[in-house]
């Protein structure tokens, strides 16, 4: 029987070559979208889930509660006591039995070393990114060591663990590197105590070297929360119970009477990458939203492809009806017929799978470049073949379900009499499929427009400062001395292509770390930031920064009230502050000019109010900013404004002076606009994928619509012939068909528009600054769908309308 089914299926496949090709292409397009999204989602979910201790690893986070406000962030409660950094969770292992290991890890640009650092041996000199971690780091994380021991890799204050890449750069091989010396920042020598394998792409932690945290504790002069605490719990330990014990241990160590309640929570380490946003003080949302969105898109496109198959199969039902009647008369049961039609659907799905496999191989490099991934060929992964087989069977069963059930239900007596009429419910069902199909396509069109506009908005919107022709160079090496910095600034300012030079404690796109007004620092009881009229226990998170006298001018910032820093005023470097409008708002100041303010033990007066400008991505609201002037500081960045069109000359000038004054460090620079664009890589990928998916959805929908038009023309061939005999023109016949299908698309637009608005409005909530979803977006999407519908319907209608009516009426 199976052999007979296969013969019939192959015969129909060959007999209807055009229909079969359209079916295979439609299903293949749906399947390739599903597979690529599956590979992308799988790669996202693998991040940080390769560690042997993964199920017992947790990331600590902090929840801050103040009256009427709850915030959260990753980090470790920390204070500086007697110029020594003290983690408040440092002894939690001994206090909580369920905690087996605790690791501290430094992360972020807020730290003094949050940028590439210089290493040298002999004539070899490179900048590499790394971090600091406590001694147990390699014991709890599965980063394989090629040389050295996990237990001792970070025990030595003078030791350093480096990657295979770094070992090969300096010493040729990991084995040769062990025990060798590396010069760090032309100041210290570190001995290589371990070499680890290059980090896998699935690791969210990125570093080429690790120093022990003990070697750097005394170098911090302020308290910062930008250190992650990773906890390994004992087997079967309950995280909630451990949280309670950790907080019981922590509370006596926190500063008193600050008005802020701090609680520690534990998040599974493998969830941090996808669930990295905070809502009401707890991790909730993040990249997982993109995983959910694209998983839904994959399902939508596959459903559109299946509906396309159903419509095309139904369009052929008239020609298959007599076959069904004869087979039933000869004794075939409905079950046999259902098996036959499901078998044909599965055969087409299998052929689509072969096309899909070919496309996966050919398009994988392009997909990786498109998404910024490094997904290896999935053909060697058993899970891929299982998923592909499951997808093929699922697609075949869904696509073949309606045709199989419909055709097997036809009555042989009516068929063989030549009377084949479809019930109103069957007609409505097919029309409902078309509405559903185009509804999904319209939702994707709206999403594409909204995502593209929001992506352009965050990339092109004015940030409150001019980021064009603006670059920065790290203050390091010889430039850390006041004499050399001022000499560098003086010489560069006179060089070709340079418009203006100044300094800042950090680059504009990451300027300053957030300091709460009530954070104690430097072992004092004074508030970190205070101001005239501050109410007790008021909590405001500030971004403090120190700049040179020309910073406001160089950045093209706007002064809303008061004045800028000026070298003509001798006291500006000792007791003057600029704040932004958001700071004035949150401090609750009336007539702020002249009011006193203190920040980190420096007290002065507000001399000017800056117009708000963005110091980070538009996902975040503008933070209150407190700025003082320090023409010299031993850390930070040198900002350079180049003249328009003279970037090449400016870089040559900078490089020349840099090498003369700082010869032991490679000349490295970053453009602000390029660094800013990196903040929106996820949105860029989403915009690109949305464009592709929207085009594919429309293309597959058109194939389905073509099938429905072909079905309709087959049913009304004689009607068209009669109308032509009675004088109907080609344009009238086209309008006859177009009216019905355009009505279905109008219904799809009405249904899909509010759904699309709700979905995209929810997505936009992740941005503090966002576009409005204008009415024309829905109008453009609807017009596009109507135009494509009209073109598709017209193509088949014109072909039918031009037929000789004699041929269509010959059987009468």
Automatic annotation (TrEMBL):
Where does it sit, as one GO cellular component term?
plasma membrane
Please give the start and end residues of each transmembrane region: 21-41, 293-313, 341-364, 384-407, 428-451, 692-711, 741-761, 773-793
* Lipid bilayer topology: Multi-pass membrane protein
Outline the extent of the MacB-like periplasmic core domain.
20-248, 435-652
Q: Show the GO MF annotations.
A: transmembrane transporter activity
Subcellular locations according to the entry:
Cell membrane
Tell me, in one coarse class, where this protein mainly resides: membrane
This protein's UniProt keywords: Cell membrane, Membrane, Transmembrane, Transmembrane helix
Residue intervals of the ABC3 transporter permease C-terminal domain: 297-412, 691-804
**Which top-level group of life is the source organism from?**
Bacteria
* Name of this chain's protein: ABC transporter permease
């Amino acid at each position: 029987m199976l052999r007979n089914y296969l013969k019939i299926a192959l015969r129909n496949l060959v007999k209807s070559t055009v229909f079969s090709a359209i079916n295979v292409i439609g299903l293949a397009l749906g399947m390739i979208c599903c597979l690529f999204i599956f590979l992308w989602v799988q790669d996202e979910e693998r991040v940080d889930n390769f560690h042997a201790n993964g199920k017992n690893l947790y990331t600590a986070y902090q929840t801050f509660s103040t009256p009427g406000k709850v915030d959260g962030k990753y980090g470790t409660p920390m204070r500086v006591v007697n110029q020594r950094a003290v983690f408040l969770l440092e002894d939690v292992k001994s206090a909580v039995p369920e905690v087996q290991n605790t690791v501290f890890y430094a992360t972020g640009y807020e730290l003094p070393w949050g940028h590439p650092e210089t290493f040298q041996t002999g004539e070899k000199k490179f900048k590499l990114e790394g971090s600091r971690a406590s001694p147990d780091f390699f014991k709890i994380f599965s980063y394989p060591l090629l040389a050295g021991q996990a237990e001792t890799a970070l025990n030595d204050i003078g030791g350093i663990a480096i990657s295979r890449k770094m070992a090969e750069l300096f010493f040729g091989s990991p084995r040769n590197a062990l025990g060798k010396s590396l010069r760090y920042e032309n100041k210290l020598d570190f001995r290589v105590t371990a070499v680890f394998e290059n980090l896998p792409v699935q690791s969210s932690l990125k570093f080429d070297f690790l120093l022990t945290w003990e070697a750097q504790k005394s170098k911090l002069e302020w308290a910062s929360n930008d250190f992650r605490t990773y906890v390994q719990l004992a087997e079967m330990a309950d995280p909630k119970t451990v949280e309670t014990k950790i907080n019981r241990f922590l509370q006596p160590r926190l500063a008193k009477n600050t008005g802020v309640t701090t609680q520690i929570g534990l998040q599974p380490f493998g969830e941090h990458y996808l669930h990295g946003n905070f809502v009401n003080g707890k991790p909730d949302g993040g990249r997982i939203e993109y995983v959910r969105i694209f998983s839904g898109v994959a399902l939508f496109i596959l459903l559109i492809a299946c509906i396309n198959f159903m419509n095309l199969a139904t369009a052929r039902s008239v020609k298959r009806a007599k076959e069904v009647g004869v087979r039933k008369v000869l004794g075939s049961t409905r079950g046999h017929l259902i098996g036959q039609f499901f078998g044909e659907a599965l055969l087409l799905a299998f052929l689509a799978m072969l096309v899909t496999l070919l496309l996966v191989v050919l398009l994988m490099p392009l997909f990786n470049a498109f998404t910024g991934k490094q997904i290896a060929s999935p053909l060697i992964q058993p899970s891929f073949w299982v998923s592909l087989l499951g997808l093929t069977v699922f697609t075949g069963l869904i696509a073949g379900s309606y045709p199989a059930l419909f055709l097997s239900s036809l009555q042989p007596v009516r068929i063989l009499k030549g009377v084949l009429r479809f019930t109103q419910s069957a007609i409505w069902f097919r029309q409902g499929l078309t509405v559903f199909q185009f509804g999904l396509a319209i939702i994707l069109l709206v999403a594409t427009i909204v995502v593209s506009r929001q992506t352009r908005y965050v990339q092109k919107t004015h940030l409150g400062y001019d980021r064009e022709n603006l670059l920065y160079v790290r203050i390091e090496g010889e430039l850390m001395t006041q004499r050399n910095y001022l000499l560098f600034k003086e010489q560069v300012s006179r060089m070709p292509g340079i418009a203006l030079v100044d300094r800042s404690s950090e680059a504009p796109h990451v300027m300053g770390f957030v300091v709460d007004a009530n954070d104690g620092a430097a072992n004092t009881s004074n508030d970190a930031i205070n101001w005239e009229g501050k109410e007790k226990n008021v909590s405001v998170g500030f971004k403090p920064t120190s700049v040179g006298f020309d910073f406001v001018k160089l950045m093209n910032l706007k002064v809303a009230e008061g004045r800028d820093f000026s070298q003509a005023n001798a006291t500006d470097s000792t007791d003057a502050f600029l704040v932004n409008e958001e700071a004035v708002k949150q401090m609750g100041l009336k007539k702020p000019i002249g009011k006193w303010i203190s920040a980190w033990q420096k007290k002065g007066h507000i001399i000017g109010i800056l117009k708000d400008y963005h110091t980070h991505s538009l996902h975040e609201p503008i933070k209150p900013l407190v700025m003082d002037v320090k023409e010299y500081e031993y850390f930070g960045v040198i900002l350079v404004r180049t003249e328009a069109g003279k970037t090449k000359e400016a870089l040559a000038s900078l490089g020349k002076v840099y090498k003369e004054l700082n010869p032991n460090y490679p000349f490295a620079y970053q453009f602000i606009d390029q660094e800013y664009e990196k903040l929106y890589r996820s949105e860029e990928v989403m915009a690109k994928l949305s464009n592709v998916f929207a085009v594919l959805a429309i293309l597959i929908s058109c194939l389905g619509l073509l099938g429905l038009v072909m079905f309709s023309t087959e049913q009304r061939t004689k009607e068209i012939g009669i109308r032509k005999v009675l004088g109907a023109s080609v344009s009238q016949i086209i309008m006859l068909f177009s009216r019905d299908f355009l009505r279905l698309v109008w219904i799809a637009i009405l249904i899909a528009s509010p759904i699309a608005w709700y979905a995209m409005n929810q997505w936009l909530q992740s941005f503090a600054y966002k576009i409005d979803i204008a009415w024309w977006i829905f109008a453009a999407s609807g017009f596009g769908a109507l135009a494509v519908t009209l073109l598709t319907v017209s193509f088949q209608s014109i072909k039918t309308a031009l037929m000789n009516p004699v041929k269509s009426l010959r059987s009468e």
